[in-house]
Specification:
The protein is α/β, with parallel strands linked by helices. It contains 13 helices and eight strands. The longest helix is centred in the middle third of the chain and has 23 residues. It binds nicotinamide-adenine-dinucleotide (NAD). Nicotinamide-adenine-dinucleotide binds next to helix 4, strand 6, helix 5 and helix 9.
Length: 357
């Protein structure tokens, strides 16, 4: 078959390294700004304040109210703070929740964004924003959402607890899995994805034993950048849909839900497109657990990841409604499915069974 693809290009400037947080002021100036509002969660407000102190007059203040799933009432309060401070750009220091708030502000005000990610969730390289209002989560894609600059500083990930390190990395791997079979995949992101799988596979067992291992932290953050770039370029499928349903409608925690679902959604789709998932099966498969889904299940289990939806607060009666919700809107997936297929997949993830492939 003749090779055919579209590569949309990369527009976000990326600064990667150790101690790169110190370059934030330079990057604000490079974008032509002189007044930045620093964003964080309440948990990371000390870090945000210390960044603001180091920026001097370039920082007009700190808004430390970012929350999971970007509630629109928090965004309204943050925008009031943004205008009151006379800010013209935002610096989002934190995980996906803080990045989400920065994106929501940028979409409504036209502000430029500098994102400094401290988890592996991977929102920073994407044009995707998920927001919640009145208990409902909606997701949209828009070029205005994509951050202008991302500063990756390995030092900032040293404090990431082992549990979040593991689940956040599995969240990132999920972007790669769905990127490998996406209808709009391209050779650049496929190469990044292959490199990222090798890097995560080598780094995560080291970090599970010693979360302060700097070289392994650097590998994992590099892999997270690759996976975020994949997420930012392609169409996601069943895995992300199920994670969205379980997070949005049942309040399940984001990274853990991705971690538990991943082996099951991977195995389900690997049955239809095994060749496209060889970058997964080659890296994660073992003689005991060959195959992309079973290999990821064994890898996650060895790292001490949560393995059962039941342990995240979902109840067995919820599985029927979750399957209904997952079928409500049509979306692309490499393998067609019925309601019963999804119900069976959720049952296996609820119980934490090892997939057969
Ligand atoms: P998070 O941002 O909610 O962070 C979880 C907690 O860990 C927070 O309290 C945070 O302050 C803390 N934390 C973050 N980094 C830390 C560090 N280095 N050391 C210690 N504590 C740290 O969690 P997340 O998993 O990064 O992001 C989840 C959110 O991101 C969800 O709302 C999800 O929908 C969104 N997301 C969006 C996209 C997208 O492209 N739009 C992609 C991935 C995730």
């Amino acid at each position: 078959m003749t090779r055919a693809f579209v590569f949309p290009g990369l527009t976000t400037r990326v600064v990667f390294g150790t101690g790169t947080l110190a370059q934030t002021g330079e990057e604000i100036g490079r974008l032509g700004h002189r007044r930045a509002l620093i964003l964080s969660t309440p948990h990371q407000q000390d870090q945000a304040r210390s960044l603001a102190d180091s920026l001097g007059p370039l920082a007009t203040g700190v808004f430390a109210g970012a929350a999971m799933h970007t509630p629109t009432d928090v965004t309204d309060t943050a925008i009031a703070a943004f205008h009151a401070a006379g800010a013209t750009c935002v610096v989002s220091l934190g995980g996906g929740s803080t990045t989400g708030l920065g994106k929501a502000i940028a979409l409504r005000t036209g502000a430029d964004q500098i994102v400094i990610p401290t988890t592996y969730a991977g929102s920073e390289m994407t044009d995707i924003l998920g927001e919640t209002a009145n208990g409902e989560k909606t997701t949209r894609r828009d070029p205005a959402i994509r951050p202008e600059v991302v500063i990756y500083d390995v030092d900032l990930t040293l404090s990431l607890p082992v549990s979040l390190t593991v689940t956040s990395a599995l969240n990132a791997i999920a972007h790669a899995v769905e990127g490998f079979y996406a209808p709009d995949r391209n050779p650049v992101i496929e190469a990044m994805g292959r490199d990222a799988m090798r890097a995560f596979h080598a780094a995560l067992p080291v970090l599970a034993a010693d979360p302060g291992d700097r070289p392994a932290r650097a590998e994992a953050l590099y892999a997270a950048w690759c996976c975020s770039t994949m997420l930012g370029q392609v169409t996601m499928a069943l895995h992300h849909k199920l994670a969205h349903v379980l997070g949005g409608s049942f309040g399940l925690p984001h990274a853990e839900t991705h971690a538990v679902l991943l082996p099951h959604t991977t195995a389900f789709n690997a049955a239809a497109v095994p060749d496209l998932l060889t970058p997964i099966s080659e890296v994660f498969g073992t003689p005991a657990n060959p195959g992309a889904g079973a290999g990821l299940w064994g890898f996650a289990d060895r790292l001490g990841a949560p393995m059962r939806l039941g342990d995240l607060g979902l109840t067995e009666p919820d599985l029927d409604r979750a399957a209904e919700l997952a079928l409500r809107n049509a979306y692309w997936n490499p393998r067609p499915f019925t309601r019963q297929d999804i119900r069976d997949l959720l049952q296996a993830a609820y119980e934490g069974r090892c997939p057969t492939n």
